[in-house]
Amino acid sequence: MNLLELVKARYSCRNYQPTSVEQEKLDYIMECVRLAPSAVNKQPWLFHIVTKEEDKAKLTQCYRRDWLKTAPMYIVASILHDEEWVRFDGKHHGDIDIAIAVEHLCLAATEQGLATCWVCNFDANLCKELFALPENEEPAVIIPLGYAADELKPKSRKAIDEIVL
Ligand SMILES: Cc1cc2nc3c(=O)[nH]c(=O)nc-3n(C[C@H](O)[C@H](O)[C@H](O)COP(=O)(O)O)c2cc1C
Hints:
Layout: H1 3-9, H2 23-34, E1 45-50, H3 53-61, E2 73-80, H4 94-111, E3 115-116, H5 124-130, E4 137-146, H6 160-163
Antiparallel strand pairs: 1-2, 2-4, 3-4
The chain binds flavin mononucleotide.
Residues 11-12, 117-121, 153, 155 line the site of flavin mononucleotide (FMN).
């Protein structure tokens, strides 16, 4: 798959098979995450691999959707606010950095025949509390990871002449 084919193949999967993800595939995906760029190369992030039943139950409380529970595992991407780069005018860059790393994750997973979905609309405070995360750590994205039980949907996007000036 070239990059355009990969980008077209990635979609938000909201129904997963129970099959576990192979360790080699997970290692490959996390290597793609590790190599993501970040502002001033700060790498202000942590990725929690959530596979234990007890932890999965905690995480799915933070985003109560039945479909989320179908995933065999999750990755929680956190921003470390004490490590992110802050520009001279005060703009924090952790959100940008985490977004790049998470999309590396999603594209790498797609390349490996796996499916993902960005989830940001979760209760981050509850997540922090349930996993006893430190003050400086903000859980920013939950990514369910597994084999799809649904199918690629057609992409609805703005036209190129609406976004390129
Ligand atoms: C930053 C971000 C946050 C998102 N949060 C959620 C979410 O909380 N729940 C959800 O079901 N989808 C979420 N999505 C998925 C988007 O709805 C989806 O990417 C968009 O509709 C385009 O569809 P596609 O990913 O299938 O191409 C999120 C996507 C992004 C990039």
